[in-house]
Specification:
The structure is a single chain. The protein has 262 residues and is of the alpha+beta class. It folds into two domains: 2-96, Aldehyde oxidase/xanthine dehydrogenase, molybdopterin binding domain (Aldehyde Oxidoreductase, domain 4); 113-261, 2-Layer Sandwich (Aldehyde Oxidoreductase, domain 4), CATH 3.30.365.10. It contains seven helices and six strands, in the order H-H-E-E-E-H-E-E-H-E-H-H-H. A hairpin with a 6-residue loop joins strand 4 and strand 5 (139-149). Helix 4 packs across helix 6. The longest helix has 26 residues, at 33-58.
């Protein structure tokens, strides 16, 4: 986000986190980190970029003196005045003005969705196809398709990975994972993965991920909305409906096990 706003290569951006001397950030909750903290980063980067443009117009030995602000472009870490074929890098501009740093602040404090003037929720539709062994009651997935509207997708690769992970999590919830406690001691019976079932590669078919959202100006200045838990919550209902369609048995408590189908 910062690199895109400042027109820099991503490897030129250093992120510092977890230091109380730094400005407070929006909490990482509700699948809203990108939409909220990311928007603050964008606003701060925009402020720094605008300050640099201002220096190029009215700073010490301003290279673009007399030009109009809208005529100044930023590309590859360089300010460009195209109509006069002039350019200057951020580094050169700061040195010319005797500055070691250029600071931009950004603060985005959104209204809670439930209290906001408009709905800015994310939406998902998940389709699951299963096959059920009529003699053994075993459920196997044939395919899963997940379609998501999470506004502007900032990083398609990591967003797709998030969706894949969420679907796998939902498969575990639907078919495998169950926390059982000792009725006498009240402790969990399974203390490690030797007895607690989670999906493996063999349990997961090819997953088809589709993003259908667009830039949502109502959601955040970044146009993005939440994607985290969204990718998991629709999976178990989709699998439950598919099992019902295949067997005629409506299972309303998870996981859907052999005992509940036979």
């Amino acid at each position: 986000v910062a690199a895109d706003t400042l027109s820099l290569a991503p490897d030129k951006v250093i992120v510092r986190l977890g230091d109380t001397r730094l400005p407070a950030s929006h909490a990482s909750i509700g699948s809203a980190t990108m939409a909220n903290a990311g928007a603050s980063v964008m606003l701060a980067a925009t402020a720094a970029r605008d300050r640099a443009i201002e220096l190029s117009l009215i700073g010490r030995n301003a290279p673009f003196a007399g030009a109009v602000r809208n005529d100044v472009l930023v590309s590859d870490g360089t300010l460009v005045l195209a109509r006069k074929n002039l350019n200057i890098t951020y580094v050169e501009l700061l040195a010319r003005n005797g500055l070691a740093t250029l600071v931009g602040d950004g603060n985005y404090d959104p209204v809670e969705e439930a209290n906001g003037p408009k709905a800015v929720f994310s939406f998902a539709a998940v389709f699951a196809e299963v096959r059920v062994d009529p003699d053994l009651g075993l459920v196997r997935l044939n395919r899963v398709v997940g379609a998501y509207d999470a506004g502007r997708i900032i990083n398609p690769k990591t967003a797709r990975s998030q969706a894949i992970g969420g679907i796998i999590w939902g498969v575990g919830q639907a078919l495998l994972e169950q926390s059982e406690t000792d009725p006498v001691l009240g402790r969990f019976l399974d203390r490690n993965y030797s007895g607690y079932l989670v999906p493996t590669n063999a349990d997961i078919p090819t997953l088809d991920i589709v993003f259908v959202g667009e830039f949502d100006e109502e959601a955040s200045p970044l146009g993005a909305k939440g994607l985290g838990e969204l990718t998991a919550v629709s999976v178990a209902p989709a699998i439950g409906n598919a099992v019902y369609h295949a067997t005629g048995k409506r299972v309303r408590d998870l996981p859907i096990t052999v005992e509940k189908l036979l």
